[in-house]
Amino acid sequence: MRKKIVAANWKMNLTVSEGERLVQGILDAGLRLAEDREVIICPPFPYLTQTRNQIRNYPHFYVGAQNCASEESGAYTGEVSAAMLRSIAVDYVILGHSERREYFQESGELLRKKISLVLESGLKPLFCCGEPLEIRESEGQQPYVQRQLEESLFPFSEQELSRIVIAYEPIWAIGTGRTATPEQAQQMHAYIRGAIAERYGNEAALQVTILYGGSCKPDNAAELFACPDVDGA
Which residues of 159-191 are buried (b: 16+ CB within 10 A; e: fewer)? Predict the structure, then answer.
């Protein structure tokens, strides 16, 4: 059975004390997660160890980094390697977020390299894909996302794919107040799963967790999660 996951990406927000209070508030809710449920908290780099320490005794809670370097090590001032993240017990790494693609011009080829390093380090990539508004309005979202998958994911083996979580994030629904309808989300999640099935086979596709990453909120989460191919957010 594939995992059901909720992942929190803080982006470049909160002070260290604010982050500590936020995590504690989540833990104080007293969630008891089943074996196939996970919570992933992705704070900024400086708070990773603090967050790890806070969740240490809570089953099925994990820590994720928001990015990593495309090189193993070396003279890359300001970068953080996958091996460094592994050494502080990080579990996941977000890769390919639309903000990284847009503001830092991260290409499919670069992301493929990052995914490889993350897998080699024993971490799990959380790979983001999705289309901007102009692509959605021209009904080109399926070939657009297909290309992202082919460039960055499909070079990997079925075994490697089994360690990767995918997040479909319609860029037009991130921080805009707009949200894909459950029907739109299900349609794209089913398309992504179908593309994986075509490349790796149906059994492999059924095991891949695909999250919805476009402004999921308490008032729409239940409806989105009820979609058969939406495995969380």
Answer: eebeebbbbbbbbbbbeeeebbebebbbbbbeb
Q: What is the pTM of this model?
A: 0.96
Instruction: Convert the pLDDT of each residue in 142-158 to its tens digit.
Output: 999 999 999 999 999 99
The H or E element that residue 141 is part of is: helix 141-152
Query: Which candidate, 62, 51, 4, 59, places its Cα nearest to that of 31?
Result: 59
Give the active site residues. 97, 169
Q: What are the C-alpha distances in Å from 69 to residues 13, 172, 186?
A: 20, 27, 32
**Cβ neighbour number for residue 62 with a 10 Å cutoff:** 20
